[in-house]
Amino acid sequence: MTKPVYILNGPNLNLLGQRQPEIYGATTLEDIKSLCDNHAATLGLEIAFHQSNHEGVLVDWIQEARVKGCGIILNAAAYTHTSVAILDALLASDLPIIEVHLSNIHQRDTFRHHSYVSKAAKGMICGFGAQGYILALDALKPLIAPSS
Ligand SMILES: O=C(O)[C@@H]1C=C(O)[C@@H](O)[C@H](O)C1
């Protein structure tokens, strides 16, 4: 039984498709999950896909991934720019971590240019919308320990 890739999504991403589609796209989170499921299967990977509006719930999933997962793909959404708690949970893990953002955060408000998550991530993919999650799976695959 291979351990899954934890794909974790932060606050307001449950509103994708309705929320500022000019910035975040028209693809719903449910559709993104389906895209990830299908692409992960082509890579021989399974996923555990979650979303929460609550910082501590995201911390709990990161801690769960540390034991039960083989890697983390994280779009922490607004918590990207504020959460030391999420950063500390990521730093407590030895798993490979890929940071994802639907939008290009470096083209946006200045407060969105800083990411705490980046201090723990192998790399970041931003600005490619839903495709960013597919790119993150491709980037993560070679980083996953063979024993996972
Ligand atoms: O582009 C994204 O996926 C990120 C999503 C959010 O909800 C914002 O708070 C971030 O600043 C950007």
UniProtKB/TrEMBL annotation:
Gene3D superfamilies in alphabetical order: Dehydroquinase, class II
Q: What pathway or pathways are given for this protein in its record? A: Metabolic intermediate biosynthesis; chorismate biosynthesis; chorismate from D-erythrose 4-phosphate and phosphoenolpyruvate: step 3/7
| PROSITE patterns membership | DEHYDROQUINASE_II
Going by the UniProt record, its keywords in alphabetical order are: Amino-acid biosynthesis, Aromatic amino acid biosynthesis, Lyase
Alphabetically, the GO molecular function entries are: 3-dehydroquinate dehydratase activity
EC number per UniProt: 4.2.1.10
Q: Which GO terms describe its biological process?
A: amino acid biosynthetic process; aromatic amino acid family biosynthetic process; chorismate biosynthetic process; quinate catabolic process
Q: Where does the record place the site Transition state stabilizer?
A: R19
Q: Which reaction does it catalyse?
A: 3-dehydroquinate = 3-dehydroshikimate + H2O
Q: Which InterPro entries match?
A: DHquinase_II, DHquinase_II_CS, DHquinase_II_sf
Catalytic residues (positions): Y24 (proton acceptor), H101 (proton donor)
Which residues hold substrate?
Answer: N75, H81, D88, L102, S103, R112
The record describes the protein's role as: Catalyzes a trans-dehydration via an enolate intermediate.
Subunit structure, interactors included: Homododecamer.
Instruction: Identify its protein family.
Output: Belongs to the type-II 3-dehydroquinase family.
| Name used for this protein in its record | 3-dehydroquinate dehydratase
Q: Which organism is it from?
A: Thalassospira marina
Taxonomic lineage is:
Bacteria, Pseudomonadati, Pseudomonadota, Alphaproteobacteria, Rhodospirillales
